[in-house]
Amino acid sequence: MLRIAIAQISAGADPGRNADRVEEIIRGARGADLVIFPEYSLGARIEDSDRLAEPLDGPLIGRLASAAAEAGTLVIMGILERAEGGPFNSIVALGGGEAIVVHRKAILFDALGSAESRYVRPGDMPLTLMEIGEFTAGFATCFELRFPEIFRSLAAAGADLFIVPSAWYAGPLKEEQWVISAAARAMENTSYLAAADMYGHAFIGRSLIVDPWGHVELDLGSGERVAQWALDRGAVDEARSRLPLLEMSRRLRSRELPVRRIRAPG
Questions:
Q1: Nearest residue to 106 (alpha-carbon basis) of 80, 141, 133
Q2: For the chain, which terminal residue's Cβ has fewer other Cβ atoms within 10 angstroms, N or C?
Q3: What is the pTM of this model?
Q4: Distance CA 191, CA 136 (A)
């Protein structure tokens, strides 16, 4: 079993106050092996990325890494990262007093009237796998949930848990698309998916845990909430035994699928 805590927060424009809230949750997540926070956890004003971006060796990240070490847990969170060539929309892992980048968002939210690329640079680092207890975790950020190729690549490389820090904007059909996309990525890869989503400032909340069958086991709805849930690695084994989608997909990927175009009769 892997016990995870999902933190659905509402980050404001003050990185210090946001860090205070994150630290409070880390220290209060007793019994959790892993605590997951949303995208932009230290500042959800993307247009202020130059001001809000934090370096990995800065005091705020250092304080949170120390809190994670003292709590004896691993923390995964999305931040605006100040680094050479950036800023980047990054996922960082905090544990044992250390902080490392595990993902930089590569497919930025330049759609539906938004232009994330005006404020951050796309990441170009390889997809990352990390062993967390009995699980092998892969990472993606928010809008990347819409791209099945990312998740199939992670699963084909060994992932059985997807961690997706997000700040999913509200809008027509956006909640439906959020839930459907999360469930589909889990089901089609017979993997767990844990998505911590920002709430407030036009973000929907509804942080999710989805099981390997695509069943939503936890939905935090609206408001600031923290909840814990236990993931059973045996559920992955059972799903992959009964529904061997990944093995079947490997056979498909080993050859090019021909496509033909024809006219309708009549």
A1: 141
A2: C
A3: 0.96
A4: 10
